[in-house]
């Protein structure tokens, strides 16, 4: 069942540093709310610049005040490379975030890096299904897809989110929870990715976008800059069941 698109909240900050401060407070506040209401907090990470922008989470006061034992960590997309490769989103998150806070290792859901892209996507989807059967992750009543508490998404200059690229058919997938791509236009080519039905079943999504190189894309996505007759960018399809908040620095927001 399709849900009604809610209006995004657009937050503009003077600097990337101010985005990092605000993103940490937003995430910590949601962590407190979801742990109070349902006993856990499922967080879906991207790779890329997002991890650095999350850096304030591993500093006081949040390092000590957040109940990290209740966090569950997933990836919205992952490169199908060894987990210790510099191209791995898992390694990026470990080095910049996960190794600095006490999230139980059993709550961190990395891909199986021994499988093919097809196999890794099937395996990740099967593990999500098991978590749903075990009532660790709920299903959205509205969509029938798994419902994560918070997704933290970045965006590429071409408007891609997760590994859903403008000219690749994965962005139109309607049935699978997790799919794969072997020819990502951004290296490395083999990846797995959550599909839009899963992304848009989330309770909350933060789009975290900083830097002048993304200003044109932000204008297209939020400023009505799409040429008539053009296909919407993947980032324009992000529409969670709950709140959508864009965190922009001055440079990314400069053409709005
Ligand atoms: O390849 C990827 O790119 C996007 C955007 O990355 P950024 O460096 O431009 O912030 C990222 O969100 C995704 O997780 C990653 O695999």
From TrEMBL:
Entry superkingdom: Eukaryota
Enzyme Commission code: 3.1.1.31
GO MF annotation terms: 6-phosphogluconolactonase activity
Protein name per UniProt: Probable 6-phosphogluconolactonase
UniProt keywords, alphabetically: Hydrolase
Record-annotated Glucosamine/galactosamine-6-phosphate isomerase domain positions: 15-244
Keyword field contains Electron transport: no
Lineage: Eukaryota, Viridiplantae, Streptophyta, Embryophyta, Tracheophyta
Protein's GO biological process: carbohydrate metabolic process; pentose-phosphate shunt
Family under the similarity heading: Belongs to the glucosamine/galactosamine-6-phosphate isomerase family. 6-phosphogluconolactonase subfamily.
NCBIfam families referenced in this protein's UniProt entry, alphabetically: pgl
Hydrolase is among the record's keywords: yes
Reaction equations catalysed: 6-phospho-D-glucono-1,5-lactone + H2O = 6-phospho-D-gluconate + H(+)
Enzyme class, first EC level, given as a word: hydrolase
CDD domains assigned: 6PGL (cd01400)
Pathway this chain belongs to: Carbohydrate degradation; pentose phosphate pathway; D-ribulose 5-phosphate from D-glucose 6-phosphate (oxidative stage): step 2/3
């Amino acid at each position: 069942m399709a849900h009604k698109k809610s209006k995004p909240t657009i937050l503009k900050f003077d600097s990337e540093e101010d985005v990092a401060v605000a993103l940490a407070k937003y995430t910590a506040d949601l962590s407190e709310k979801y742990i109070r209401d349902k006993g856990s907090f499922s967080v879906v990470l991207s790779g890329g610049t997002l991890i650095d922008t999350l850096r304030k989470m591993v500093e006081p006061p949040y390092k000590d005040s957040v109940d990290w034992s209740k966090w569950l960590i997933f990836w919205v997309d992952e490169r199908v490379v060894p987990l210790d490769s510099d191209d791995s989103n898992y390694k990026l998150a470990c080095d910049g975030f996960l190794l600095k806070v006490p999230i139980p290792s059993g709550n961190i859901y990395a891909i199986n890096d021994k499988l093919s892209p097809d196999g890794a996507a099937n395996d990740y989807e099967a593990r999500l299904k098991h978590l749903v059967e075990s009532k660790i992750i709920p299903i959205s009543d509205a969509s029938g897809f798994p419902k994560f508490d918070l997704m933290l998404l970045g965006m590429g200059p071409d408007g891609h989110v997760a590994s859903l690229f403008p000219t690749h058919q994965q962005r139109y997938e309607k049935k699978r929870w997790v799919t794969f791509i072997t020819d990502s236009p951004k290296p490395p080519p083999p990846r797995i990715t959550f599909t839009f039905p899963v992304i848009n079943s989330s309770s909350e999504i933060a789009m975290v976008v900083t830097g002048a190189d993304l200003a044109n894309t932000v204008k297209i996505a939020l400023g009505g800059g799409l040429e008539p007759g053009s296909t919407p960018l993947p980032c324009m399809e992000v529409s969670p069941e709950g709140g959508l908040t864009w965190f922009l620095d001055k440079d990314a927001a400069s053409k709005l």
